[in-house]
Amino acid sequence: MMSGIEGKVIAITGASSGIGEATALLLAERGAKVVLAARRSDRIEALAARITEAGGEAVPVVTDVKRRADLSRLVATARERYGKLDVLVSNAGISPISALDDLRVEDWEAMIDVNIKGVLYGIAEALPVFREQGFGHFVHTLSTAGLKIVPQMAVYAGTKNAVRAISEGLRQEAGESLRVTTVSPGFTETELAHSITDPDARSQIQDSMAKIAMPPNAIARAIAYAIEQPSGVDVGEIVVRPTAQS
């Protein structure tokens, strides 16, 4: 019996590591055709080869989500290669957190460009395709940082809550044929801390990750759960935390 994932064409941004990589591997294992998007060509090419060698289907597309043209190429590649796009997983994100007093304005702007505009560019390119097809599913990776606001994470949390609001508005506008899911991970073993420019904040986050972080496959399974539901079932929001996270 086919799963609700087998045969689906799924594009994933931020696919070169962490949650994106784990999601690509899990979905390909369950029969999806995955379109891998990230800036690091060597990483997504190696991942595509790994999936193909295991009997799956994958195609890498070098993508910087700050550029709308790159998202356009991503969606076009999925359609040209496989004839459709079932799901867009907007997972790319950065977290150069710091205290507001530090005035790291360039970091604020980078988070807005990647975490918010990158998602909006994905919507802009995929939504017309989904409307034309009569089906489609947006999956947006958020964060528990947007649910519990703490010092140093104000701007990062703000970007995630902006996408939360955009996703809910999209869900309400989507109608009966499209689905919208947000997934909010807690501490997860990813490379997200590498984008933190404040050394003290980076060290603090890395210490927390070392102590309690979940494997990225935990989030991949949550994403797969939302995707595999019948077409008339919309899993709106999933929150996944380590049990040790307050």
Describe this structure in words.
Keywords: Oxidoreductase. It comes from Streptomyces yatensis. InterPro entries: NAD(P)-bd_dom_sf, Sc_DH/Rdtase_CS, SDR_fam. With 246 residues, the chain is of the alpha/beta class. Strands 3-2-1-4-5-6-7 form a seven-stranded parallel beta sheet, sandwiched between helices. α4 links the parallel β4 and β5. α1 crosses α7 and α3 packs parallel to α4. The longest helix is centred in the middle third of the chain and has 29 residues.
* Termini separation: 40 Å
Instruction: Briefly note the structural class of the backbone.
Output: alpha/beta
Rg: 17 Å
Mean pLDDT: 94
The outline comes out as globular
Question: How much β-strand is present in the residues?
Answer: 15-25%
Number of H- or I-type helical stretches? 7
Biggest sheet strand line-up: 3-2-1-4-5-6-7
Measured as a percent range, the helix fraction is 40-55%
Largest sheet report: 7 strands, parallel
Q: Topology as H/E string?
A: EHEHEHEHEHEHHE
Number of strands: 7
> Unreliable stretches, pLDDT < 50, 5 or more residues?
none
Family: Belongs to the short-chain dehydrogenases/reductases (SDR) family.
Pfam families: adh_short
Protein name: SDR family oxidoreductase
Keywords: Oxidoreductase
Quick summary:
This protein is α/β, with parallel strands linked by helices.
List the helices and strands and how they pair.
Layout: E1 9-13, H1 18-29, E2 33-38, H2 41-53, E3 57-62, H3 68-82, E4 87-90, H4 105-133, E5 136-141, H5 154-174, E6 178-185, H6 199-212, H7 217-228, E7 237-240
Parallel strand pairs: 1-2, 1-4, 2-3, 4-5, 5-6, 6-7
